[in-house]
Write a structure and sequence with these properties.
mainly beta; Pectate Lyase C-like; 13 helices
């Protein structure tokens, strides 16, 4: 009969009455009939699948509201699974006889129940043959002593699940068995209802109520669509391989699943079969990173539109040049004068950081706009391709495999100990004390699970635990999303870790780990919190929108923190305090609502090659009691200072990463010892700021108010809205050496009274105030101070100062002005007039000052000039314009070591050139 003889809709109505065997026969008629039968997927096949008493919804228990890809395929997989308990089984005694019994179609079926051939389960098990089926009719079956399964057998409950209950303790002493549609409750003498130590058991659609399933290697287990409730649990000891699929665990008093001990060397027949099942399972529908990121996209216009420090703010007294700019009309604050005899200084040692690139784009140091984009985290496939160890773990089948299970409302989910091994894929952990606890050299692989609403930490690894945790959604937990301590060293990649009531990831107590390409956001405390000698690798993550710091390193925490995007956090992007000593390299730290990097009390660390920009507070905030090394960072477009060094107790020290002080000591209580807590990576005695670019910040580029020594070498400080460098307090020596301080809205360098400062080998160019305003003690040696709007160098107050071998050309005002009772010497300086309209003396000293000695200074005045002059008359050529050091940002500290001492060229000369045949007329006065 042709399909086309009746409408398709009518055929579907007719075929809806066929039982399963007849539907299978119809599929074999022809291709048209097969397509017609397959089109019944959402009707007849769905009805058959849900109507089978041995089968539950394919997406039960975690996602029963979702339709499977195919109801027919789900029913097919169930039918195949009902037979797999016999596949490849070993033969007992006469293999020919057992093969005949196992494969014959008329294998014996025994019925147990009131009015049946057996009234007790023990009676039926005493007569069954290998691979027979025992059907238990509705009722409660209780045994007063342990029951042994001595031959392969299948126990099936008749009717709906819950109508057949067993109060029994069974021990399997045969190679294989299957139990289906049964409810297990513990007898009076034991909580263990089923155990095996060498055979394979398959559990389908069974309930365990207050009972324990115990599998000991080389025994194996496959459990499908089973419920473990009222404190029930599964204990697997030394298992080689077991598979728990689509099971529901609830109300546990301890852990729902315990995996203990290394896999035994001996393997039973089912291991090969279970490994094949593990590899052919369809991938889970859950994905931790496929969705779009929920983070907001703050831009420079929204974050850095205004500065926290208003335009009227002052870091000291206004320079004369600044005051004059307010009186004049239509004055260009950066270039108030076109200097007729300007000394060219565009080829100084850091000028390569300001020149346009080959494609015409501006480098970061001179761009008025922040970086437009940040790198995206890698996908799991990309991470696996570059990490062979992670690739091996992702492909491995370990001791206990849990797929698509639901763990809810209990104490614990999965507990691994003593070299146990487990693989968790596509499970949901909800409302537990903890989801996963992996300790004592155990190995865990977690792929695409959801871990949420745990009262403590979601995933807890300690005592040298390891494994792979990838593409999980870990959120809304009461403690940390992941807690790593005591030598644990997992690989954590491509997860979403968010909305926690404390930190996203905590690493402490000598914990390690590789934390890469995760999205960590919206946690109440730090996104990643490292303390008590924790030493992880944190790389390529997006850490954003946290309610505290992005990354916090406290209490002697360490770590390698590289190439992360840390943005939009309420507190510091990175917060280092109390002995924290990380390597912070090549990160994007931006758009924060406070400071970019905070180095608080006793903070240390190497901070190198980072992009710190568009933060509401300072770019980098450093307490003077800390000893960081800042090398090669771009600190730009922040609303307050670029880099601020404060006295202890000032600024933002009140911010902490814990809600209550007592909670900090709760972390410490779990440590084995304090032997490694006070170790340091390097011996550092002076904080170092070297080879950084501090540009376009809303206030001072470098602000120093410190009680400790500080070395500031070879930095580019340009285009900041305040002074380039301001030293307001410095009881110990602050060294400012070979820096370029360029085009800042106020002065170049300001040093207040009672400060100790060495200013050596710097290039201070075209700032809108004084080049150097100095009221403290120290020395100003071998600097080039050219083109600044105010005085070149102004020394005032009770300063005790040496001004030696500088080259100074002001745009207007004095070259060097000594005001008040200054002590010291002004020797061997070269002073150049910049404009013939400037009538002020190049070297001014208040009358009556007998305590300051001046001698051997050279003055270059312009008496006449001609319009045909095409080249500047003066050139800084021996040495060339300072700074002389060339230090491109981002070089590693090994390639560009810190300078403990800088040798300066002592020979200074000025070359006089002419643009006309008769030359310019000038006078040199000694």
């Amino acid at each position: 009969m042709e399909v086309g003889s009746l409408p398709v809709e009518l055929w579907r109505v007719i075929l809806a009455y066929l039982p399963l065997p007849d539907l299978g026969r119809c599929c074999q008629v022809c291709r048209a009939w097969r397509e017609l039968i397959l089109s019944l997927d959402n009707t007849r096949w769905r009805q058959l699948c849900l109507g089978c008493p041995e089968c539950r919804h394919p997406n039960w228990p975690s996602q029963p509201h979702l339709e499977p890809p195919s109801w027919r395929e789900a029913l097919k997989q169930h039918a195949l699974a009902t037979r797999t308990w016999t596949q490849n089984g070993p033969e007992l005694q006469s293999s020919a006889c057992l093969l005949f019994f196992r494969r014959r179609k008329d294998r014996r079926v025994w019925h147990v129940g009131p009015g049946c051939e057996f009234e007790t389960l023990r009676g039926a098990l005493g007569v069954v043959g290998p691979y027979d089926r025992v059907v238990l009719h509705p009722g409660v079956y209780e045994e007063q002593a342990e029951v042994a399964l001595k031959v392969p057998v299948e126990l099936v409950g008749l009717g709906r699940l819950g109508e057949v209950s067993l109060l029994v303790c069974m021990e399997q002493q045969c190679p294989t068995a299957r139990l289906c549609n049964l409810v297990f409750m513990p007898p009076w003498f034991s909580t263990v209802v089923y155990k095996t130590s060498w055979g394979h058991v398959q559990l389908d659609n069974c309930n365990f109520e207050g009972a324990q399933l115990q599998i000991r290697g080389p025994g194996t287990c496959q459990a499908r669509f089973c419920s473990f409730s009222q404190g029930s649990s599964a204990h697997l000891l030394g298992v080689v391989l077991s598979l728990l699929d689509s099971c529901d665990f609830s109300g546990s008093d301890t852990a729902s699943v315990t995996v203990e001990g290394p896999p035994v060397l001996e393997r039973n027949w089912a291991c090969k079969h279970l490994a094949g099942l593990a590899r052919t399972f369809p991938s889970c529908g859950m994905s931790g990173n496929n969705g779009s990121s929920p983070r907001g996209q703050l831009t420079g216009s929204t974050v850095c539109q205004g500065t926290v420090i208003e335009d009227g703010w002052s870091d000291g007294e206004h320079s004369e040049g600044e005051e004059e700019s307010r009186d004049g009309e239509k004055t260009n604050t950066k270039h108030p004068f076109i200097m007729d005899y300007k000394i060219p200084c565009d080829n100084h040692g850091l000028s390569h950081l300001l020149k346009p690139r080959a494609d015409g784009s501006l480098p970061l140091a001179s761009s008025p706009d922040p970086p437009p984009v940040t790198p995206e985290p890698l996908t799991l496939q990309q991470e696996l391709e570059r990490d062979p160890e992670a690739q091996m773990l992702a492909a491995s089948t370990l001791g206990c495999i849990l797929r698509r299970c639901l763990f809810r409302e209990g104490k614990g989910g999965v507990h691994l100990s003593n070299y146990g091994q487990a693989r968790l894929e596509g499970n949901v952990f909800r409302g537990l004390n903890y989801a996963v606890r992996c300790i004592q050299n155990s190995t865990i692989v977690m792929l695409r699970n959801e871990v949420c609403e745990c009262r403590a930490s979601g995933v807890f690894l300690r005592l040298s635990a390891q494994g792979l945790i990838a593409e999980n959604n870990i959120h809304s937990n009461g403690e940390a999303g992941l807690d790593i301590r005591k030598g644990a060293n997992p690989i954590i990649v491509c997860n979403k870790i968010h909305s926690g009531l404390r930190s996203g990831v905590v690493v402490l107590g000598n914990g390690k780990g590789s934390i890469r390409s995760n999205q960590i956001y919206n946690n109440k405390e730090a996104g990643v919190y490292i303390l008590f000698s924790g030493n992880p690798v944190v790389s390529g993550n997006h850490i954003f929108q946290g309610q505290a710091a992005g990354i916090a390193i406290n209490e002697n925490g360490r770590g390698m923190i590289t190439e992360n995007v840390i943005k939009e956090n309420q507190w510091g992007g990175v917060d280092i305090r109390r002995g924290g000593d990380p390597i912070l390299r090549n990160n994007y730290i931006c758009y924060g609502f406070s400071d970019g990097v905070v180095v608080g009390e006793r903070g240390r660390g190497l901070i190198e090659g980072n992009h710190v920009y568009c933060n509401k507070g300072c770019g980098v905030w450093v307490m003077s009691s800390s000893l960081p090394q800042l090398l090669g960072n771009y600190i730009t477009h922040n609303c307050m200072y670029g880099l601020a060094v404060f006295l202890e107790g000032e600024g933002r020290e009140g911010q902490e990463n814990l809600n209550e002080e007592g909670e900090l000591f709760a972390w410490e209580s779990d440590l084995d010892s304090e032997d490694e807590r006070h170790s340091a990576r390097r011996s550092i005695s002076v904080a170092l700021v070297e080879s950084n670019c501090m540009s376009y910040n809303g206030a001072v580029g470098l602000y120093v108010k410190s009680s400790e020594p500080l070395n500031v070498f070879a930095n580019l400080v340009n285009s900041n809205r305040g002074t380039g460098i301001a030293v307001l307090q410095s009881s110990q020596l602050t060294r400012l050496v070979t820096n370029c301080i360029l085009e800042n809205v106020r002065g170049g360098v300001t040093v207040e009274k009672d400060c100790r400062v060495e200013l050596r080998g710097n290039g201070i160019y075209e700032n809108s105030g004084h080049g150097v305003g100095f009221s403290g003690n120290g020395q100003i040696v071998e600097n080039d101070v050219v083109g600044n709007r105010g005085y070149g160098i102004q020394v005032s107050g009770n300063a005790d100062i040496k001004v030696l071998r500088n080259r100074v050309q002001p745009a207007q005002g004095c070259g060097i002005a000594v005001l008040g009772p200054v002590k010291g010497v002004v020797h061997d300086n070269l002073l150049f007039q910049g404009h013939p309209g400037n009538k002020k003396t190049l070297l001014h000293m208040d009358p009556g000052n007998d305590s300051c000695v001046k001698k051997k200074n050279l003055y270059f005045y312009v008496f006449a000039f001609r319009s045909c002059t095409s080249a500047p008359p003066w050139v800084l050529e021996n040495p060339p314009p300072r700074p002389l050091a060339s230090s491109p940002s981002g070089l590693s500290s090994s390639r560009y070591p810190s300078r403990l001492g800088i040798s300066m060229t002592t020979r200074i000369s000025a070359t006089v050139e002419s643009g006309c045949h008769s030359g310019s007329m000038f006078c040199s006065i000694l």
